[in-house]
Design brief:
This protein has about 90 residues and is an alpha+beta fold. It is about 25% helix and about 45% strand.
């Protein structure tokens, strides 16, 4: 199972009642690290607002073999909840 599918599964479990999808995925590089920036969105029925979703996700320890979730941001825009993750190769 790819780490993208694992992240979708975790979002479904942690923030239920939404229909999560990968909205954007792009490579990310720094001088010492590489990874991917991912944006997940849900438009239907998520029971959490951005502040509650951020608290849930920040408290969660993601377990992704070979990957590290280095940063999480949550925002609401245009009636949808967006979760932005920076996933580094570990």
């Amino acid at each position: 199972m790819t780490f993208q599918k694992r992240l979708l599964r975790e979002l479904d479990r942690l923030l239920p009642d939404g229909q999560w999808r990968v909205a954007q995925e792009r490579p990310w590089f720094s001088l010492t690290f590489s990874g991917v920036q991912m944006t997940f969105t849900t438009t239907s029925g998520c029971a959490y607002d951005a502040q509650k979703a951020a608290a849930v996700l920040e408290a969660h320890e993601f377990t992704l073999p070979g990957q590290i979730v280095a940063d999480i941001a949550v925002e609401e825009a245009d009636g949808e909840l967006r979760v932005l993750l920076l996933v580094l190769e570990g």
